[in-house]
Amino acid sequence: MKISMLLASAILCSLTALGNSQADTLRLTLTEVVAKAKANSISAKQAVTVKETKYWEWRTFKSNYQPQLSLSGTLPGYNKTYAQVLQPDGTILFQPIHNDNSSLTLNFSQSLAATGGTIYGTTQLQRFTDFDRDNVLYNGIPYGLGYTQPLLQFNSLKWDKKIEPLKFNESKQAYIESQEQISVQVTGYFFDLLLAQVNLHIAETNYINTGKILSIANTKFELGKISKNEILQLQLEQLNAQKSVGTARRDVEIATLNLRSYAGLDGAERIVLVTPAEVNQMSVSADRVLSEAFENRSDAIAFVRRIAEAKKAVAKAKGENGLNATLNANLGFSNAASSIFDVYRSPKSQQSVHLQLSIPVMDWGRSKSKAKTAQANEQFTTYEVEQDKQTFKQQIVTQVTLFNMIREQMDLTVQADRIASEKYQIASERYVLGNLSITDLSIAFQESDRAKRDYIASLRDFWGAYYQLRYLSLFDFEKNEKITY
After folding, report:
1. d(CA 188, CA 194)
2. At what angle do helices 286-296 and 366-433 cross, to 10 degrees?
3. To the nearest whole number, what is the mean pLDDT of the chain?
4. What angle do CA 311, 313, 318 make, to 5 degrees?
5. Which helix (H) or strand (E) holds 243?
6. How far apart (Å, rounded) are the C-alpha atoms in residues 471 and 183?
7. What torsion do the CA atoms of 191, 195, 198, 200 make, to the nearest 10 degrees?
8. CA distance 323 to 233
9. What is the DSSP string of 226-238?
10. What stretches of 62-134 adopt beta strand conformation (E)?
11. DSSP conformation class of 361
12. Which end of the chain has fewer CB atoms surrounding its CB within 10 Å, N or C?
């Protein structure tokens, strides 16, 4: 934590030295960058759009199991033309027709998922006006009820009722995963910029320190205490340090643009990142992560959904085996009259029952082949899902192991950074006193710079692994709660 604060302070001082005022500087932590990316990035907006699409697909599915009411009709049904009329002797005459045949129908239907059948009801009124004969007739069905039942056929409503809820739950968890994937992605951009800023600070510090040491070396050279070769070496070090400053500034600009673009950060302020610390108190076990992953991840739901879809395909192949039968029965009342009200007075009952059959006599084994193919695909899907489960488990166990190893290495990296910084300070003082060679001083420079970069790299690995664990399990192990949005 102490190292983190020192690095953050050093970066801030370095950028302030370039002439940027506090009003033009935007200081951000990793948590703030992640939050802004989840709110403003294109990836976040795409995830929201996909979530809404899946929601309305779910609403469409639900509506298939709700009562449906529709109104249809022909208003008006006006005709004025000539039409052929068959005469009793077999000849045809074209007779003038001038009429209006209007109708209005109100239909009700309700699908039954358990059987795949449909209950329906209807009421209908028809008005026929013959303008040539000045005659008006009414025909109507005050009410009628019916039932249609497919026999020995595939029941899509029953299978959809099993599969569609899985798809909807899968989409909800996939949305959470997309948010966590944004965290993983933006963390990479965050540390790209943080490392570039650290490199800039190191380069500027080395340039300043090299200039000071060169000034002291020039004095020693005038007194004849050091050789010309050592002066040339320091001048070369200063030139390299100056080149490093330019390269580091370019890298900062590129990394800043990348972070702004992905996270949706508007404005022209200079971004200064605060170095995050590792979460030492968080404990993670592979069993816990696996348990949460199989409970929360969309992949776990997809395993069940894929098996169900394979079984649905088998049922469909068997149900569409060529034998089609549909039972249709209805009853109600109908009437015809010269006025509307007479249609509804003493209507006459009507009933009908139909059984429609279609049986293939010879299909050369097509139905059997379709069923066997679906069964083979079901078996393949079962094996495939088991393999994906094993891969899923292995991925999680590997990530947990990696995370715990990174946590253990963090302490060593912090110690190495502290020792390298102290060694560099001592080497600088010894060189000024004249009891250290320029070669040893350069080595101390390089070790100090490498230790600082290694520390940032370790932080990057830690936080990348941390957000990857959140993504794989959809569980916040720091707060010990499921991740929700």
Report:
1. 10
2. 140
3. 86
4. 95
5. helix 228-263
6. 9
7. -130
8. 93
9. S-HHHHHHHHHHH
10. 68-74, 78-86, 92-111, 118-130
11. S
12. N
What does the pLDDT read at residue 434?
Answer: 65
Angle between helices 30-40 and 156-222 (to 10 degrees): 140
pLDDT per residue over 426-480, tens digit each?
777 776 666 666 666 667 767 777 778 888 888 899 999 999 999 999 999 888 8
Tell me what the mean pLDDT of segment 274-285 comes to. Answer: 78
286-324 residues labelled b (16+ CB within 10 A) or e (exposed): beebbebbbebbbbbbbbebbbbbbbbbbbbbbbebeeb
Give the pLDDT of residue 14: 44
- The three-state secondary structure class of 295 is helix
CA dihedral 226, 228, 231, 233 (to 10 degrees): -110
Q: What angle do CA 416, 420, 421 make, to 5 degrees?
A: 120
For residues 180 and 470, what is the distance between their CA atoms, to the nearest angstrom? Answer: 7
Mean pLDDT of 7-36: 63
Q: Higher confidence at residue 117 or residue 269?
A: 117
Burial of 202 from C-beta contacts in 10 A (0-12 / 13-18 / 19+): buried
Give how far the C-alpha of residue 414 lies from the chain's centroid of Cα atoms, to the nearest Å. Answer: 37
Measured CA distances, 474 to 61, 120, 133, 177, 289 (Å): 27, 46, 78, 7, 9
Q: Mean pLDDT across the stretch 370-396? A: 94
Distance CA 326, CA 149 (A): 6
Mean pLDDT of 352-368: 85
Strands 78-86 and 324-337: unpaired
Q: Give, in degrees to the nearest 5, the angle at Cα 338 between 124 and 349.
A: 50
CB neighbourhood size of 86 (10 A): 9
Contact 205, 241 (CB under 8 A): no
What distance in Å separates the CA atoms of residue 2 and residue 207, rounded to the nearest whole number? 25
The top-scoring range by mean pLDDT among 116-130, 235-249, 407-421 is 116-130
Distance in angstroms (rounded) separating the CA atoms of residues 194 and 460: 9
Alpha carbons 361 and 275: distance in angstroms, whole number: 77
Q: Are 334 and 347 in contact (CB under 8 A)?
A: yes
Structure tokens at 334: 């109908």
Evaluate the omega torsion of the peptide bond into residue 360 and state whether it is cis, within 30 degrees of 0.
no
* Structure tokens that stand for 399 in this block: 């990530």
Of 191-205, 229-243, 347-361, where does mean pLDDT reach its minimum?
229-243
What is d(CA 230, CA 240) in angstroms, rounded to the nearest whole number?
A: 15
pLDDT at 1: 34
Whole-number Å distance between alpha carbons of 162 and 222? 90
pLDDT value of residue 438: 60
